[in-house]
Design goal:
By secondary structure, this protein is α/β, with parallel strands linked by helices. The protein has 16 helices and 16 strands. Bound molecules: flavin-adenine dinucleotide and NADP nicotinamide-adenine-dinucleotide phosphate (NAP).
Length: 410
């Protein structure tokens, strides 16, 4: 491939990835809250205060930080099924808040109105309001004060990709640094902020194996933005700042469930943190003595440092709970090796499992991985099912309609 083409591909991939991040930050705003029928079940307004039992780094030596968390559900009444997620309500980082207050030019001691409540600004920023990740609406509101032509230009619909680019790696504090607003009142400043959204994490444990507990697999977001070290609000809250308890509630997902008939074979594709729900699936299938076969595709950067839950998978494989285990290490050699490459290597066997009625699950990154896995499925249908491109697409759609191709991607 020519250098120009490679650059074009890279640029369009980066934009896709950024768009997916922007979309996902919107997604967690509009997802419904707990749909439990129990009227006393914890919700966003009335979360369960869970004790953190375990916070363990799983990727010692890696340049990526993925952690295993165990939270207590004692006396919570919180039910969950494999495939459900946990919604976590984080607090902001004290330093992020104090830096922001300094740049905005307010003390933090001002009283502000948030909804119907009067709060001290600093407390509102710490506990109630989102004050890092930018949104288009927020930039629009900010520009009512800043009156910047540059921002006005970026806010045009035709410039939406440029806006995504602009927002990537920038936080609210950067807007105030670039366009100082000396004299903005504390209340006007609060008017720019939205309520802190909860973050979703796939539950990585089954209650059958860990009664009264919920486990999570979290990649801690850390990156350089505008020359500064930045961190994701909730993943860093879990990693570094949890106090007495973690406010949380269950987010049921009826579209990502184990087959009712436990003799149905399942194929699970979960690279990176996408592994989380499959740990719950396999724990559950073992606990209930499911007779259906289990096949796991997992991938991450390096076998030595990023093999999440290695001992558990190896033990399941040895005991025959996992019939097949295929691993893709993307950075252990010069060429990238991803889960979809492993699927294609095993295409005959995979086709036969699918023809035997397997349910095919994908979890993890939506912007790149899930699309490539979808394409691999189509390729397998073409190669093994003697289909043309269109027929393969129809076949994949059919799998989805039959609810035998289920995704939990973000
Ligand atoms: C159904 C569902 C299940 C999920 N399950 C899991 C799970 O099991 N494990 C898990 O770890 N996550 C999971 N997530 C993602 C999780 O909800 C959070 O989105 C994630 O932890 C980031 O949240 P945060 O608060 O730490 O980061 P935020 O404070 O929300 O920051 C993220 C923002 O930081 C910016 N950013 C991030 N990286 C960069 C970069 N390299 N350069 C520039 N800017 C950047 C982007 O603006 C991005 O939107 C799931 C999401 C969904 C919707
Ligand atoms: N939209 C979102 O909010 C979103 C989605 C996914 C991930 N993330 C962020 O990414 C970080 C890590 O997440 P993660 O552990 O779930 O996953 P990840 O680190 O992004 O990826 C896990 C593995 O998948 C590989 N991979 C990359 N592109 C792929 C593709 N097209 N097909 C198949 N595999 C591919 C990676 O390889 P290489 O890295 O070597 O290429 C790595 O080996 C976190 O900070 C998370 O917040 C955010």
């Amino acid at each position: 491939m020519g250098m120009r083409k490679q650059l074009d591909n890279l640029c369009s991939f980066r934009l896709d990835y950024r768009k997916s991040f922007v979309k996902s930050s919107i997604a967690y705003l509009i997802l419904p809250m707990s749909t439990s029928t129990d009227p006393n079940a914890p919700t966003k307004a009335n979360p369960y205060e869970s004790e953190l039992l375990v916070n363990r780094l799983m990727t010692e030596g890696s340049d990526k930080e993925t952690r295993h968390f165990e939270l207590s559900l004692k006396a919570s009444g919180l039910e969950n099924m494999p495939g459900d997620s946990l919604e976590v309500l984080p607090t902001n980082c004290e330093k992020v808040v104090s830096d922001l207050l300094g740049v905005v030019g307010v003390t933090g001691l001002e009283t502000v109105k948030v909804g119907d409540e009067n709060l001290v600004l600093e407390d509102a920023l710490m506990n109630r309001l989102a004050c890092t990740v930018l949104s288009k609406i927020q930039i629009k509101k900010f520009n009512e004060f800043a009156q910047s032509d540059h921002l006005a230009d970026l806010l045009q619909i035709a410039n939406k990709d440029a806006l995504v680019d602009y927002m990537w790696g920038r936080e609210l504090i950067d807007l105030f640094s670039e366009f100082p607003q000396s004299g903005i009142s504390a209340q006007d400043f609060v008017g720019l902020l939205r309520p802190m959204p909860p973050r979703l994490y796939s539950i990585a444990s089954s209650l059958s194996a860990h009664a009264e507990e919920v486990h999570l697999t979290v990649a801690v977001v850390r990156y350089q933005g505008q020359g500064k070290q930045r961190k994701g609000v909730c993943s860093s809250y879990l990693a570094e700042r949890v106090g007495q308890s973690i406010p949380c509630y269950v987010h049921p997902n009826k579209n990502f469930k184990l087959p009712e008939d436990s003799s149905t074979p399942i194929i699970m594709v979960g690279p990176g943190t996408g592994i989380a729900p499959f740990r719950a699936f396999v724990e559950e299938r073992q606990a209930i003595g499911a007779t259906g076969k289990n096949w796991l595709f997992f991938g991450d950067r390096s076998e030595k440092t990023d093999y999440l839950y290695r001992e558990e998978w190896e033990s399941y494989k040895k005991d025959g709970v996992l019939n097949e285990l295929d691993l893709a290490w993307s950075r252990d050699q010069t060429e990238k090796v991803y889960v979809q490459h492993k699927m294609l290597e095993k295409k005959q066997e995979l086709w036969s499992w699918l023809n035997d009625g397997s349910v095919f699950y994908v979890c993890g990154d939506a912007s790149r991985m899930a699309k490539d896995v979808d394409q691999a499925l189509r390729t397998i249908a073409q190669d093994e099912g003697a289909m043309n491109e269109e027929e393969a697409a129809v076949w994949v759609k059919g799998l989805q309609k039959e609810r035998r191709y289920l995704k939990d991607v973000y």
